[in-house]
Amino acid sequence: MTAILERGAAPSTTVGSEIINGDGVSMGAVGRRLNKNPLTIWRWGRKGVAAHDGTRVYLETAFVGKQMLTSWAAVSRFIDRLQIAPTKGDVEIDDDPEQIVRNPVERNEAAT
Predict the structure, then answer these.
(1) Global pTM?
(2) C-alpha dist (Å) from residue 111 to 46, 97, 99, 104
(3) Which pLDDT score is estimated for 6?
(4) In sequence order, which residues have a C-beta less than 8 Å from that of residue 38 and are 6 or more positions away?
(5) Helix, strand or coil, per DSSP, at residue 10
């Protein structure tokens, strides 16, 4: 029997079940579908991607033997988690009226 080792920030038994049920796909297959290098897909599973709120979002993956697999449902969940836009409370907004946008000449004049 091949052991399945979950990968990612929060290991999920969902992707393992999806793979066992026949929905497993390779990093190469995901890369071809999304027009990305398979190493990019692998990195999403191992290192994650920074989300808008500063957290890291990981593609749910599992190793079956030496091959890293995921599922289309896991790819969909990963993309959905990255699409969550920050709310106004999540973003620091500087309401300082002293902060003025200046061109380089104006910046030099203001500095002297």
Answers:
(1) 0.64
(2) 46, 18, 14, 11
(3) 41
(4) 26, 27, 28, 30, 31
(5) coil
